[in-house]
Amino acid sequence: MALLETEDLTHVFPDGTVAIEGINLKVNAGEFLVIAGPNGSGKTVFARHLNGLLRPTRGRVLLDGEPISKDLIGARKKVGLVFQNPESQIVGQTVAEDVAFGPENLNLPADQVATVVEESLAAVGLSRFVTRSPHALSGGEKRKLAIAGILAMNPKIIVFDEPFTGLDYPGVVQVLKEILRLHKNGHTILLITHELEKVLAHAGRLVIMHGGRLVEDGKPETVISRVENYGLRMPLREGEKVGSLTWLK
Ligand SMILES: Nc1ncnc2c1ncn2[C@@H]1O[C@H](COP(=O)(O)OP(=O)(O)OP(=O)(O)O)[C@@H](O)[C@H]1O
Ligand SMILES: [Mg+2]
Fold first, then answer.
1. Distance between CA atoms of 8 and 225, rounded to whole angstroms?
2. What is the bridge-based pairing of β-strands 157-161 and 188-192?
């Protein structure tokens, strides 16, 4: 049985915008799946359904075969979502409090919370900021803080929505290494990104969304040859021209 499954998942906003339509996706435990698609294709709306932040207009999301609508709190424990906009994820007065918020809500004992906070901040390189206000962090640091907050919850499935936006090169490397470490440790990873060249060599599967629909789903080496049909750019080898069909492994 799939760990995560969406059936005919459809979301129509009150203004009539059909953000996603008829999405059927099955994700097995331990997969590393990349989701790409042009701006406005429904990636973020889709992600927000996976832990019940949005409720479907039609269709459903299943975790371990059970509809998440039966247990939304359980769904939030199992599926961690690192938001595209890290500002909207800030909950604490200090960096340490911000990361502690999740594990405290899971009722972990205080000494365990302290350890988890320390480890999560170290994993993203933010240990030196424990007492600072999250609002006083730079954009890239806020993004790393949002990732630390999810690490602290230790969810089975982690959905990263554009985790590389605004990061400098060492930041990209650090976040990518952390994602790979999580995958190696058995977490199921869904990674939404435009930056295919950074991640495709590691992905087991590539899904493309277009106009709110899931239009491609398969092995990266197969799907990649079709991405230009959807207004996406092929990842390039260094020195290659835009439009090249070679995929860098
Ligand atoms: N609250 C809302 N009301 C109406 N339409 C919305 C709302 N939120 C999102 N949409 C629309 O739903 C569609 C999908 O948006 P979504 O944010 O999922 O796109 P995306 O694929 O994540 O894009 P990006 O690559 O820019 O992050 C867009 O057309 C967007 O304008
Ligand atoms: Mg988005």
1. 26
2. parallel
- For residue 98, give the 3-state DSSP assignment: helix
- Looking at the structure of the chain, the number of domains it has is 1
Q: Please state the separation of Cα 101 from the chain's center in Å.
A: 19
Q: What is the pTM of this model?
A: 0.91
Mutate to test the pocket of ligand 1, among 23, 35, 43, 214 (most ligand atoms within 8 A of CB): 43
Is 157 among the domain residues? yes
Please give the chain's pLDDT, 249 residues, in tens.
899 999 999 999 999 999 999 999 999 999 999 999 999 999 999 999 999 999 999 999 999 999 999 999 899 999 999 998 888 889 999 999 999 999 998 888 999 999 999 999 999 999 999 999 999 999 889 999 999 999 999 999 999 999 998 889 988 888 899 899 999 999 999 999 988 888 999 999 999 999 999 999 999 999 998 888 888 877 655 555 443 333 333
Q: Whose CA is nearest to atom 24 of ligand 1?
A: 39
Beta strand pairing call for 32-36 and 205-210: parallel
- Tell me the residue range of the domain where 189 lies: 4-230
Q: Is 92 part of a structural domain of the chain?
A: yes
